[in-house]
Amino acid sequence: MPEFTKGEVSILLSSVASFTASFEKNVVEVLQTQFRGAQPAEVNEVREQLSLLAKQLGIAQRQGALRIHDAHNPLLKRIVIDERRRCAEAIDLPLQKAIDPQLIKHLHREVRPLEEMMTTPWFLEARALRLPRLTDYISIRFAENALADKLVLHPREYDEKFHILEAPALFLPDLGYYRTKCSFRGAPIAVAYVDIDDFKAINTRYTETVVDLKLLAPFMEMVEAHVFGHGHAYRFGGDEYVLLLPNMGPRWAVEFLRELSAKVAAATYPGLEVRVGISSGTCDVDVDCFLTDREVLAKANLAKNFVKSRGKGRIASYEGTFFREDELVLR
User: Fold this and answer.
1) Sign of the CA dihedral with 116 first, then 120, 125, and 126 last
2) 86 vs 293: CA distance, rounded Å
3) Is the domain of 37 the same as that of 175?
4) What are phi and psi of 28, to 5 degrees?
5) What is the pLDDT of residues 112-159, one digit of tens each?
6) Dihedral (C-alpha) 183, 185, 187, 190: value to the nearest 10 degrees?
7) pTM above the 0.85 mark?
8) Are residues 251 and 288 in the same domain?
């Protein structure tokens, strides 16, 4: 039976209220509109659980009895996961602007307590409650059309230098789009950060102009062809690329990157006496992932850097639930 501090109870009360409002807007109200006020039993059950949990937390706050029954743990875990991501997304843009350490610390004040809860025994032992989805009751197409915030994939833009891979500015909105699409289907997403090994030495040896023409252009064509039909590839810099792979789980993503590595290693570049290798890091995004879109990108980058610091030419991914560096493994 988890025991919380008064501060944690206050945070959980606020989180339950926010989570309830979101559930009402995105599930309850949509189903009421679609089915003339009728409501599935499972949806009403979740609403009752949320109401009971809010009452229990309110009593705990007033009486100082800060224990919550284990029966609430699956719902509490679901709420903490969703609220951690919501709070982190709310501070995402301000964090991009902030340079003052105290201001940054202040921005993290809502997220940090939720992250601390995620390391406690009750959270680790509980299985997050599976909430009713719109697609349990209506087809995917109707569910997507019923969303208050319409799903739109931005018009395609391409890297301004080569016009082969997609522009990096598209990555974050694309990931948000696919996270919603995949959540309706219970499908995962893989994000991979790919880096050309020893690129600086190649550039120094042959010059940037020659490398752009004879190596990077055919390399990117190879990446585009490999990703075609599976997702999107973005050029993030001279030797860095990001792949967005909807409906691709962790094992498939690793095999997919191994195949790309083999193609790259076997390729020849006329006029250049080089064999190119790549290092790749992946961040796997399932429907329960608590990371923001920007954090997903950063975690994939961290995994790529992990490979680069350990000999290059490999793939790294996370084994664990918190996407920490000590959870990274080479594949």
Assistant:
1) negative
2) 11
3) no
4) -60, -55
5) 999 999 999 999 999 999 999 899 999 998 888 888 778 899 999 999
6) -60
7) yes
8) yes
